[in-house]
Specification:
By secondary structure, the protein is mainly beta. Helices cover 0% and strands 44% of the residues. It has a six-stranded antiparallel beta sheet, with no helix packed on it. Strands 9-10-11 form a three-stranded antiparallel beta sheet, with no helix packed on it. It has a two-stranded antiparallel ribbon with strand order 4-5.
Length: 109
């Protein structure tokens, strides 16, 4: 296995779904799975999971939870305009590589 790819989204980003069953929905990234290039987004790609009774869920039963979605189906939402945008990387004035919005050219924190 080679080096893991650097991804354009991070945990906590707000993203927009561009294809699939959940197209046009927005949500916050809860987790990024770099190994298989997927992310878990709040409220997107909900699945029903059957669970046995345990200490967290003493009743057991069917739980709705988010499943991972491939990051190629996600676009970052530009914090300044609130619209989806592609991401670039460039060096800032402190010579540190930062993400920036291709639409507005603004740096993304």
């Amino acid at each position: 296995m080679g080096r893991m790819k650097k991804l354009h989204i991070k945990k906590g980003d707000t993203v927009y779904v561009i294809s699939g069953e959940y197209k046009d929905q927005q949500g916050r990234v809860l987790e990024v799975l770099r190994k298989n290039e997927r992310a878990i987004v709040e409220g997107v790609n909900m699945v029903s999971k059957h669970t046995k009774p345990n200490s967290q869920n003493p009743q057991g039963g069917i739980i709705k939870k988010e499943a991972a979605i491939h990051i190629s189906n996600l676009l970052l939402v530009d914090p300044s305009s609130g619209k989806p945008t592609r991401i670039g990387r460039k060096l800032n004035d402190k010579n540190k590589r930062v993400r920036y919005s291709k639409k507005s050219g603004e740096e993304i924190k």
